[in-house]
Write a structure and sequence with these properties.
By secondary structure, the chain is an alpha+beta fold. Helix 5 packs antiparallel against helix 6 (195-225). The radius of gyration is 29 Å and the shape is globular. Helix content is 45%, strand content 20%. Strand 18 (522-526) and strand 19 (529-536) form a beta hairpin.
């Protein structure tokens, strides 16, 4: 099969492999490695073999089924299982995609930032701002600054329209030129064939393949340097062809919708109705506390800008975050003047609109309920938020010491260390520890501005609180898909997850939790993930305490507008001796059943704290990553592979290692690490 796969043509290999792909075996691993090496995809998912076999123990005929017949291809197509049989095997029909099928071309507008120089851009922006000065009106001034920056980018780095067959296609200027040149030569060759033209076309084919390979290498290298594991592995999945580029479509009322103009309205109505149904009737209120100048300084703008990530993504203003970051460092006075006007007279309306894109969670992709919104905001507004966040940080821990989210020197690891320390300490005292976590539905989307105002009016200075209330009030969003945008949808509750201020405001909103729970209750939180623990030497008394604590916790969350899902609440008992009691605990009208393992911020806690479950999960992740590393060997050199292993693989394996990695657990993943370290010699 390896020899037959070494071709540039479309390949289809099928037949009775006599390997059940639903069971682990050496042959299955061998086939999977071959498919990965030659970029082949297996299409058969349903049972293809059936046989009636007499059970030797009972003497009863039983129907045995499995997937023994497989179809591997390196091209697109569809597979169907027919009702016809050959012996005890079903016939498989595979349809190749027609070479003459019309492919929809995607129009993508991109800026090329080749030769990007922040000094030149800041100089051009300064010249543009000198022609028309700020008026003191935040709406006018923000539009003036935005338009000046856009005009500068259009002059220095103009937009280019590129047509691609798939959204994930490699986009490169030189590559596009060679493709167009090849297309012209092919037309000329069909009219007047000649060996000279054929030679030029063949040379162009070689150059194009080389450029595509180099572009893939460059794409992986850039993602690797970005230090974002999810972004890097998404790029790997695109190269493997495992990310679907199929057109987004929904099934609504038995009808299939593919038109982007209709899709954005369906998603917009769904996202809005979900929040409205959970929040009930809630209206916008006018919060006029009384303005006094906040006086944002140039130093604060520079400090905030240095903390921003230099990303090329953008919001409605079409200005990359990297450009705003650089301009703020070179022109801090301009931004400080604008931000002071916003604090005094109100935030511009354009900054209050989020551009939302649907992100698939799980389940069928044609169901709107299986998507969640991802927001993208105005880039200048993010710098403004970062500056205001600096003021909030200066006020101290208003959200409680138990909160580890969005704080300096705090992380998910520190949260888990605190929880693990409490559990270990109580176990050493001979006690049983009960820990639970209540599930919240659309937590960030249900923050009530009026309740936030009541909670914070004695904690945050009036001038700063007015800015925060302006930020939370009169927000709206538009859904965007393939250039189409929905009508504006207004929101009366919630804080935007894609914002910089939103997560911190949410933790402030939950800051009163400690006062509502019984004494000696241990609380650990990271954003909306909260873990409550209590201990007792007697299990029955512990159950009673847990039941009371969970009920009070549930009532508190409902009192501030949160919607809880007790059915998804997780509960676990930690003890030195195994506890087999799985009697559900009553919480209001619902019951919660204890588990043997609970997932805390990405780490699996066992009831005996031996970390067997977590070590097992890591082994599975490492085995899957090894297959990806074998594929990456085509594009990444040895130093690059070492960086991938140390940056992404070891980062995954040793995530939160101070919590769980010790002498008792290290041997459980030692063999895995040895295998991974020798994957690329």
């Amino acid at each position: 099969m390896s020899e037959g796969s070494k071709t540039k043509k479309d390949v289809c290999i099928g037949g009775d492999f006599n390997i059940n792909i639903r069971k682990s075996c050496p042959e299955k691993e061998l086939i999977e490695n071959w498919a990965l090496d030659f970029h082949m995809k297996q299409h058969v998912k349903e049972n293809t073999w059936e046989r009636l076999i007499t059970n030797p123990r009972t003497g009863i005929l039983e129907l045995k089924q499995s997937v023994l017949d497989l179809v591997f291809t390196n091209c697109e197509g569809t597979t169907s299982i027919t009702d016809k049989y050959t012996s005890d095997h079903k016939c498989i029909l595979y349809n190749f995609r027609s070479s003459f099928e019309e492919v929809k071309r995607h129009k993508i507008k991109r800026r090329t930032y080749k030769g990007y120089n922040p000094e030149i851009i800041s100089g051009k922006v300064t010249q543009g701002m000198l022609m028309t000065s700020f008026t003191g009106d935040p709406e006018f001034d923000s539009n003036l600054l935005t338009n000046t920056i856009i005009d500068t980018l259009d002059e220095l780095h103009p937009l280019r329209t590129i047509r691609t067959s798939r959204p994930s296609d490699i986009i490169d200027q030189e590559l596009e030129k060679n493709k167009k040149r090849r297309k012209r030569l092919l037309k000329k060759y069909h009219k007047e064939p000649s060996h000279v033209l054929l030679g030029k076309i063949e040379q162009l084919n070689k150059n194009i393949k080389k450029q595509i390979h180099q572009a893939k290498q460059r794409q992986l290298r850039l993602r690797l340097e970005g230090q974002n594991p999810r972004s890097f592995w998404n790029a790997v999945a695109e190269l493997e062809g495992k990310r679907s580029d199929d057109m987004l479509s929904l099934t609504v009322g038995g009808m299939q919708i593919e038109d982007p103009a209709k899709l954005v309205e369906e998603f917009g109505d769904f996202f809005l109705s979900k929040v409205q149904n959970l929040s009930g009737n809630s209206t916008n209120q006018d919060y006029k506390i009384g303005h006094s100048r906040v006086n944002i300084t140039s130093e604060e703008v520079i400090k905030a800008a240095k903390k921003l990530k230099p990303k090329l993504c953008h919001g409605e203003d079409n200005i990359p975050m990297k450009v705003i970051k650089d301009l703020a460092i070179y022109l801090p006075d301009v931004f400080a003047t604008l931000f002071n006007s916003c604090c005094e007279l109100g935030i511009p309306a354009d900054w209050m609109v989020a551009i939302v894109k649907p992100l698939h969670k799980s389940g069928p992709k044609d169901q709107v309920s299986n998507y969640r919104p991802i927001s993208n905001l105005n880039s200048v507004s993010k710098l403004f938020e970062k500056t205001i966040l600096g003021r909030l940080d200066d006020l101290g821990e208003l959200d409680g010491k138990f909160q580890h989210g969005f704080k300096k020197n705090r992380s998910t690891t520190t949260a888990m260390i605190e929880l693990q320390d409490f559990i270990s300490t109580e176990l050493d005292k001979g006690k049983i520890v009960g820990t639970y976590s209540i599930d919240l539905s659309a937590a960030f989307d249900l923050l009530r501005p009026n309740m936030f105002h009541q909670m914070m009016q004695n904690k945050i200075p009036c001038n700063l609180l007015q800015v925060l209330m302006d930020f939370l009030s009169d927000r709206s969003f538009k859904v965007s898909i393939d250039g189409s945008k929905s009508i504006t949808k207004n929101l009366s509750v919630g804080c935007v997850q894609g914002s910089i201020l939103g997560p911190r405001l949410f933790t402030l909103y939950l800051g009163e939790l400690e006062r509502c729970l019984p004494m000696n209750t241990h609380i650990v939180s990271y954003a909306d993930d909260t873990y409550i623990s209590t201990s007792n030497k007697d299990l029955e008394e512990l159950k009673t305490t847990l039941s009371d604590t969970m009920e009070r916790h549930d009532q508190y969350l409902k009192s501030i507008g949160m919607v809880t899902n007790v059915n998804k609440t997780e509960l676990i008992y930690f003890a030195k001796n195994d506890i087999n009691d799985i009697t559900p605990i009553k919480v209001g009208n619902d019951y919660v059943t204890p588990k043997k393992t609970i997932k805390v911020l990405g780490v699996h806690f066992d009831s005996d704290l031996k970390w067997n479950s977590h070590a097992s999960k890591l082994k599975g992740k490492a085995a899957m990553t090894m297959r990806k590393l074998r594929f990456l060997g085509r594009y990444i050199d040895i130093p690059g592979m070492k960086k991938i292993v140390t940056t992404h693989l070891f980062g995954m394996l040793y995530y939160a290692s101070p919590v769980w990695f010790n002498e008792l657990t290290s041997f459980k993943i030692l063999n895995t690490l040895n295998i991974v370290s020798t994957t690329k010699d």
